[in-house]
Amino acid sequence: MMSITRLFASLVTKKLNILKLTSNYVPRCTYGLNNVGSNDPGIEIEEKKIVEEKTSLAMRAYLQRATLYNNFMEQQTHEFQVGKRHLANMMGVDPETFTQKDINEAIEYLFPSGLYDPKARPFMKPPSEVFPPKKDAEFDESGRPFHVFFYTGKPNFYLILHNIATKLSELNKFEDSLRKNNILPDDNKKLSSIGSQWLSKEDVEKLTVEKLSDYEYKHFTIAIERLLKHPCSYKYVEFIAQYQKPMITTKAIMESSPVEYTKDGKAYVTVKDCPRKSARADVTVFYPGTGKLSINGKGIEFFDDIQAREQILFPLLFTDMVEKVDIEATVRGGGISGKAGAIRFGISWSLRSFVEPETVERMRIAGLLQKDYRRRERKKPGQARARRKFTWKKR
Amino acid sequence: MKAYRRVCNYATAAVKQEAQYQIPTASRTDKKNPADHDSHDLSKFYTIDAKTVSSIFYTGGLPKPFVEQTTVFAETALMVRNPALEIIHSLKSADYHKPARRYLLYGQTGSGKSLSLAHILHYAYSSKFILYHIPYVPIWLKYGRKEVNWSPTKNGLADVPLIAAQWLKHFKHQNGALLDELNLTTSQDYIWSIRETTPKGTTLNEFISHGINRAKFACDCMDYLLNELKAHCSNNKCKMLVAIDGFNAFFNEKTDLKTEDRVKVTPQQVSMVQTGLSAVLSDWNNGAIVMVTSPRAALNTRRESHLPIYLIGRQGFEHIDPFIPVLVPELSTIEFNNMLDYYEEKRWLQKPGGRKELEFLTSKLPADLMLRCASL
Amino acid sequence: MALLVKYSKFGSCIKHLFQMSPQFAAKYSVYPPHFGEPIYKKQELDKLLETGGIENFKLIPFKAAKSNETCSIFHDPVVSKFINYMLIKGQKKLARQVLEKTFEQIKKIQLAKYNKETDPEKKSSIIVDPVVILKKAITNCKPLLKLTPVKRGGSYYQVPVPITDKESTFYAMRWFVHCGREKDKSVSFADFMANEFIQASNNNGRVVKKKLDLHKQCESNRAYAHYRWS
């Protein structure tokens, strides 16, 4: 590890263009994702003749494996293409305009499956999606690695970190130069972290074709967060955007359930199967109402517990609709707290239609519009209960 | 008053800084005698002075949580509500030559029936009625290692002598002074045993004391006492109010009382219950009967409804038919606000505002409200 | 590598609950890490709207509100926390009932004092609100330091160490609960704890004594304070 740092330090101080070095020196393979750190798009592929005396046994086996994989993938791709055309012909569709979506529909039609897990059902996908990507030959016949960071063991990942670090130092220099001329970094241009989240560990693993540990992923997050927070980070927007993912919009919550009308013209909303633990509730809220409440035919006396009663009151109090709506609820399953939570969710979900969008947003922030998916944690083997461990005995 | 409340309840932060919260005062009425209460006093509090409270309710009659509250507030304040007022008016305008009228107070648990009964009792006390008051019937019938003996005089009935003696004490405490005033006496000899007799013409007070001292004969004493009182009332010597709280307990299916031979007795088999049931009959005049049926008195048996037909059943209905049913409803909005004002005035309710919440959570039942406000 | 080390050392510390397999995970949450904690009090939300901080929350999903939290004015997070600490075997109903009885008792005691007091100045200084007394009692019992065992040369020394506000509150509340468990069987929890809270709010009582004992111990172990850093 120390040697590698020294190597990098020397490389950096010497200001050598590392990548150019490798590109001129060694043949590049088109397959796999070795081109992660490459800045030059148009590299010519030179097939160097393999000199038999210089290759070791291990090297030969390695190259053999790589070629086997490549051939295998070629074959699979070919089969896939042929199969796709056959399928298109079977379905009577033009093979040229046969998309993946059409393939999926065709397979579902031709091979109907009653299996529960979607992953177990038959599928037809391009082999690049099915077979996990493998890294191509990482070093040439003489054993010299292509990638600069090969000896870290996770070259692509550490290249990302290295890039972040270099960019950070460049930004610092840039900021220094600005400040020398008494210019402050432009606040308007500053990048914000709202609306996006970083790639998850799985995403980064996919990107680098390398398995990462939690510790390493944490490092990555800290590093790129640091880069983003730099006031001049707008200079490297595209670089940072590579590792960003947009946040999930809360569209489902903002669209309220449909409003129906009774014979008398009263507006009402019904929400079915509101879940909480194992309780399920059907809640109907009538809008121009007087504050009547009926749960399984009874009033609020259905619940003896104060906490349960408070939970039902919560959404009504929050939106100031205590005396303005009538509620009819039927609830089954679960216990006292579960029933109360289910009804609470039902009331909140229905009230969206009778309340301003601003209030809906407030309800969302208050946590009223989120389904509570918490379930009882299972007991684990080797432990007494879900968390409680057995008494530790010295002997 | 309303303006204050409006300011305080709906004020924004800015306005609140200007107007510091003024602790409200409950609206009260100054009339101490319930006979004077009329519709102007509705939803207002009236206080009963301590002496009267101790003379009527010392041995029972006011619910325990309420009594604890009165010690904290240093006063006994009852709210004048419609059901009690109706019955009092009816009593005032009743024709006492006719047989005794029956009133039945009913309502949900915690809607204020016992306190309405207390209001009526106070009226009766101040109007010089004799109070034949059973504070809460299930006390007679609950398991408590009480001695239960088969009655020597009445066939097939069981005696609970200690409880009967306790009740006689209660009766004496409430009515002792009045009986002295009226100077009622027994109309015949009563032979308890070979050596013990109560001759004709002894004052009722002495008669009752004998019953208290000789607990063995307390149940019979109760029975004879009732007959005496009925006779006196029919002869226009005195007026009587029979007040029974938890009336439907007479018609429960079973009790937890066991005799020495380990036989569980039903309520109908207890002699005191039979006395109570005969008190409710209309074979006397110059008085009135007020009964209260409460789901709580059914002792975890009948939970479905609070209506009297469900609680006392067909048998009970036929026993007390005809009667005037009076519903004790939840608090109205004015009453509810007044009650909370009272709690805030006494510094019991520490957090002002939040009335809507309390309204929803307790569905305006006064007992629930009392329970909720205890911790706030 | 050196560059990275240099920049990551002072990097932001991210609280992460890793979504590992639920079977044998040390930390496990149904919600992914980016979910926000719900803000349910109306006043706080009003403040957010005023300052414009609500914009930050537009794209963050929020966790569901807990079953014991409401926007009602009668709900207090400190009281909720205390009820949770009092809980045994998940009997929340009982814990809450008992605490409410304690509040009732506090009110009775304080009201008796209030009604007896004639001097208007002293009268206005008597606090009757049980929640205020609870909070005051807890703040009076919060320790500033705690003792942690540090191993030095084969033996463990009790080293005084500063603690966060959260931890300090936890200790204060826990001492109250333990104190309640040590009570005499004949006295009810409500009566006992009411007295404890009132005494603690006046800087008396067992729990405050516990805090002062801890402070004394920390003072006496001052010499070992430097053991914190090697």
Describe the structure.
- The complex is a heterotrimer of chains A (395), B (376) and C (230).
- Chain A is of the alpha+beta class.
- Chain A folds into three domains: 17-38 and 47-145, no CATH class; 151-246, no CATH class; 259-366, 2-Layer Sandwich (Ribosomal Protein S5, domain 2).
- Chain A has 13 helices and seven strands.
- The longest helix of chain A is centred in the first third of the chain and has 35 residues, at 57-91.
- Chain B has 376 residues and is an alpha/beta fold.
- Chain B has two domains: 23-29 and 41-60 and 67-80 and 331-376, no CATH class; 92-329, 3-Layer(aba) Sandwich (Rossmann fold).
- Chain B has helices at residues 2-10, 13-18, 50-57, 64-73, 82-92, 113-126, 138-141, 161-182, 204-213, 218-234, 271-279, 308-320, 333-345, 355-362, 366-373, and strands at 45-48, 76-79, 101-106, 129-134, 149-150, 158-159, 190-191, 197-198, 239-245, 287-293, 324-327.
- Chain B has a five-stranded parallel β-sheet, with helices on both faces. A two-stranded antiparallel sheet of chain B has the order 1-2. A two-stranded antiparallel ribbon of chain B has the order 5-6.
- In chain B, strand 7 (190-191) and strand 8 (197-198) form a beta hairpin.
- In chain B, helix 9 runs antiparallel to helix 10 (218-234) and helix 10 packs parallel to helix 11 (271-279).
- Chain C has 230 residues and is mostly helical.
- Helices cover 50% and strands 7% of the residues of chain C.
- Chain C contains nine helices and two strands.
- Chain C has a two-stranded antiparallel ribbon with strand order 1-2.
- In chain C, helix 6 packs across helix 8 and helix 8 crosses helix 9 (205-220).
- Classes of the chains: A alpha+beta (395), B alpha/beta (376), C mainly alpha (230).
- At the A-C interface, helix 1, helix 6, helix 8, helix 11 and helix 12 of A face helix 1, helix 2 and helix 4 of C.
